[in-house]
Design a protein that fits this description.
Chain lengths: 153, 266, 260
């Protein structure tokens, strides 16, 4: 009997540990157990990626439609080359759309916002968005402001 | 006394531990089917001798032959096989504290034989019966008195019907009745099953009363070896001092004050 | 000159000790296995005494640490008007650091010390020699189940610690301080990644569990078999175990999160 109860407790303990793991995975990290969503890749080059990180979200009208896959330096153009995965069901982004690096809140994380263009052709796998707007860098803003006020004098 | 076949031969063994020489050229023989008592003052490494025989320790030089095999030259698995022929009764009993009395005795059989549960249970109760503790089968070791624990340990030591049983200080800390019971049990086991027994003790009276063969160790060497009667008749001053328990003699009352004691302090 | 040679000798001693501990571990895990049924029974027994008995202290400390984190985090985040981020703070600090480290420290004190004391006592009462005399390898029979149980238990306990900590923090921040329920979870889910945070925290706990259990069983097995020796060995388990946890934590954190 003694060992039966021990086994029962140990069983409960292990189940509890597994439940905790599942809880953390689902509730805390928001991991979805559905198969990995199909996606296609598009790229964009920025003058300044200013603190954008891997896996930052990509949004249209504030709705997340994808995430940043990688950020590397384009060695020829000296620009930040951002590759992002866009969910496959969002397949109607016009070719002339623009993309900007935005900040959520004053101190929040950086993310990408897509602004829809008017072209009839849509972006496909491997296409590039040419109309990009870099991150706002505080130092640049201040120096622009100072430069402007100087020239007005 | 007729010369009997030797079961264990200890030949020119030297052993030191922590820089201290414990055995300096010890040779002795333990005859088959007899009770041999190894006696000597505390600190002469009597327990060490048992551990050397069981090959839990390895001598610096010299050989120990158990039933003709050099136990220190054996591989691990061969050594474990030899050990199945040995039973050891530890000073503290060494019962496994997480098992009941019956489980303790059943353990070596479960481990080394292919007997069924029922067969093991039968043997356990017969072994317990032979040490007079059949009623204690379901107790835990913590519920036993010192004497009972030692008897259970004895039952466990003989569970596999060994050829050799080693007793490490079986009488220490026992009341006179327990001592008497143990003396009787050891004698009985030895005679019934033709077991070779080695008894390490400094209880002169009990040891001499049951031993067929006696070795006295002192200062790292064997100072006397022979039958109980021969030892008692010995005129060697060291032997006489030990047997009579005289406070001063060849073994001085005062611990020598040389550089050894300084080392000990450090 | 003398000090240099002393230092060298100390270093050699240390290497020797590490080597001995390594051989000890390898022997206890890879030697001839005991019978399968018996091995399972022994393991279950150890899972009980190492894991189940540590559960209460882990759950209670997890809940309280989560609650305190929520309180402290809230009061600071409220100054910036972003008290919803308390969920993010709670989850990240628990998963990445606090759960593995605090659980491992509690484990070293609760389970590690009792492992050392138990094995030390078995040595002092000659139970280990007794196994050896019966032709049963004490490493395989006594050490292996304890080591394996310890390695299994600590990561599980760490997960339970995280979960209870987050629940405790949730109760304080949402039910008590009035943080918005949805914002609490969504902020958390946005910033917590399954692989970098949960899996890395789990790996940390696994490393700690190997280190702590190894130290505990080794100290027990190598202790001087007297009451004083067992006491010292138990203390050493807690001290060395805790230091090993903190040092390992630094190395692992640098390796896992260093580039963030």
């Amino acid at each position: 009997m003694r060992s039966k109860r021990t086994e029962l407790f140990v069983g409960c303990f292990i189940v509890l540990g597994v439940l905790a793991f599942v809880y953390l995975a689902v509730q805390v990290s928001g991991l979805a157990f559905s198969a990995k969503k199909d996606s296609y890749q598009i790229v964009a080059r920025f003058d300044d990626i200013g603190g954008l990180t891997n896996r930052a979200k990509v949004t249209i009208a504030g709705v997340t439609v994808g995430s940043v896959e990688s950020i590397v330096l384009d060695k020829e153009l000296y620009m930040g080359l951002v590759t992002m995965n866009i969910d496959a069901d969002v397949d109607n982004i016009p070719l002339d759309s623009s993309i900007a690096i935005l900040t959520s809140g004053l101190l929040g994380e950086k993310y990408l916002g897509l602004s829809i263009g008017a072209d009839d052709e849509m972006l496909g796998n491997g296409d590039e968005i040419y109309d990009t707007q870099s991150a706002l860098v505080l130092e640049t803003l201040i120096s622009q402001f100072l430069f402007k006020s100087d020239s007005e004098d | 006394m007729a010369v009997t076949e030797a079961y264990i031969k200890v030949q020119n063994v030297r052993f030191s531990r922590g820089g201290r020489m414990i055995y300096d050229d010890v040779s002795l023989t333990i005859p088959k089917g007899k009770i041999t008592a190894v006696m000597g003052p505390s600190g002469t490494g009597k327990t060490t001798l048992l551990r050397l025989i069981a090959a839990q320790l390895t001598p610096d030089s010299g050989t120990i032959l158990v039933d003709g095999q050099n136990v220190h030259a054996l591989s691990r698995s061969a050594l474990y096989k030899v050990r199945k022929k040995m039973g050891m009764l530890f000073q503290s009993g060494a019962l496994f504290s997480d098992m009941s009395v019956a489980e303790n005795i059943a353990f070596p059989m479960e481990e080394h034989t292919k007997l069924t549960r029922d067969e093991i249970a039968t043997i356990v109760s017969s072994k317990l019966h032979s040490v007079g503790l059949r009623g204690a089968a379901s107790l835990m070791p913590s519920e036993l008195s010192g004497g009972m624990a030692r008897r259970v340990a004895l039952a466990r030591a003989i569970a596999l019907d060994p050829e050799l049983v080693m007793y490490d200080e079986p009488f220490t800390g026992q009341d006179p009745i327990s001592k008497g019971v143990l003396v009787k049990l050891i004698r009985q086991l030895n005679d019934d099953a033709n077991i070779t027994s080695v008894l390490v003790s400094h209880d002169v009276e009990e040891s001499l009363s049951i031993a067929d063969h006696v070795c006295i160790l002192s200062g790292g060497t064997v100072i006397a070896e022979g039958s109980a009667a021969e030892i008692q008749a010995s005129s060697d001053p060291q032997v006489v001092q030990f047997l009579k328990g005289e406070p001063d003699g060849p073994v001085p009352f005062h611990y020598p004050e040389d550089k050894h004691s300084e080392e000990a302090v450090i | 000159m003398k000090s240099i040679s002393l230092l060298g000798a100390a270093l050699l001693d240390w290497f020797e000790a590490v080597g001995r501990a390594g051989i000890f571990l390898a022997q206890s895990i890879f030697r001839v296995p005991v019978r399968f049924n018996e091995a399972v029974r022994l393991l279950v027994q150890q899972l009980y005494s190492v894991g189940v008995l540590s559960l209460v202290i882990v759950v209670v400390s997890g809940a309280f640490i989560g609650m305190v984190l929520a309180l402290q985090g809230y009061s600071i985040l409220a100054k910036f008007g972003s008290e919803e981020a308390v969920g993010q703070l709670l989850a990240l600090s628990l998963l990445r650091e606090l759960a593995p480290v605090v659980t491992a420290l509690l484990f070293a004190g609760r389970a590690g010390s009792s492992l050392t004391a138990e094995i030390g006592l078995m040595k002092a009462t000659e139970q280990l020699s007794s196994f050896e005399m019966m032709g049963v390898d004490p490493l395989r029979r006594v050490i292996a189940p304890r080591f394996i149980a310890g390695v299994i238990c600590l990561p599980l306990l760490s997960l339970i610690f995280s979960a209870t900590g987050i629940m405790g923090g949730y109760v304080v921040s949402v039910n008590w301080l009035g943080v918005h329920d949805g914002a609490f979870w969504s902020q958390m889910q946005q910033s917590v990644y399954f692989d970098t945070d949960i899996i890395n925290g789990f790996i940390k706990a696994l490393c700690f569990s190997v280190a702590v259990t190894w130290i505990a069983v080794y100290q027990g097995y190598e202790c001087v078999p007297t009451s004083e020796g067992i006491g010292k060995a138990t203390t050493r388990t807690v001290v060395l175990g805790s230091l090993a946890i903190l040092a390992l934590d630094f190395v692992l954190t640098a390796a896992m999160f260093g580039d963030f």
